[in-house]
Amino acid sequence: MRKNKKVIITCAPTGSIHTPSMSPHLPVTASQIADAATGAAQAGAAILHLHARSDADGSPSPKAEDFMRFLPRVRQATDAIINISTGGSAMMSLDDRLDGARAAQPELCSLNMGPLIFDFSAAGRRVEEWQHGWEREYVEGSRGRIMYNDNAYIKRIMLEIGREFGTRFEFECYDIGHLYTLAHFADRGLIDPPFLIQGVFGILGGIGPDTRNVAHMVTIADSLFGEDYVFSAFAAGRHQMDFCTQSILLGGNARVGLEDSLYIAPGELAQSNAQQVVKLRSVIEALGREVASPDEARAMLGLKGGDKVAF
């Protein structure tokens, strides 16, 4: 793993898991997403991992037009690296999931390194009343869905987004086997280092929320990639800050945001994405590390630059 002196903070403001009924602070309109992303960048996030939603009811949307409602605003307001999701949700086809990335041609896209059960049904337990008709079935039905990316899908994303637009990837690894899949594509020459490996912990269906798993993932990644990768980690729900801290202690980077956790402390909803970024920044600085700027993160990850995107 490349151990840089500075820590890259990624913020994921909205995602596709949480729904409007779960928190009044979850950004769901284009204007709210733009404001949340900008606030997170101003607080210290170098990378903004972005999903789109429908303005009508806050449901996850893969449509390029919904991304374009906020992407230009975010770019005008900040120099942060824009990272467009190609994961979307389990309800979307691959072509749907690539719509935003094709239109935006961003510096960075997420790429799930394999299929997995993605059960977030427990997230609805605290909801007393659902605001929109789509929410309850969407959340409770997740126990019966697969977040699907097979090797053919992964290759298509690498070629159609990576090779076509010079976009690099945040490789989301939900289990150890995903590292070996990444190594397979690296060996085939479809991707080039440095690889940004984002370890994802605590999703029911993926690797569990035991902080020892962070060290295990780093150990395996070291054996497969040596110093050809940059590591980051995040965890779902209440495990968020523990896993960020563990990643930093190991020399890595970290991700926060309301996509991953709606809370800032036990039982206390986060008021904003920026609030989580500020908390993570305080942890980083307390550990004697510094926060990377967007341009420093670009250099660390070998990105093409914010002037080469299509928004």
From TrEMBL:
Coiled coil: none annotated. Its EC number is 2.-.-.-. One of its GO terms (molecular function) is 3-keto-5-aminohexanoate cleavage activity. Pfam families: BKACE. Its cofactor is Zn(2+). Keywords: Metal-binding, Transferase, Zinc. PANTHER family: 3-KETO-5-AMINOHEXANOATE CLEAVAGE ENZYME (PTHR37418:SF2), 3-KETO-5-AMINOHEXANOATE CLEAVAGE ENZYME-RELATED (PTHR37418). This is 3-keto-5-aminohexanoate cleavage enzyme. It comes from Croceibacterium atlanticum. The lineage of its organism: Bacteria, Pseudomonadati, Pseudomonadota, Alphaproteobacteria, Sphingomonadales.
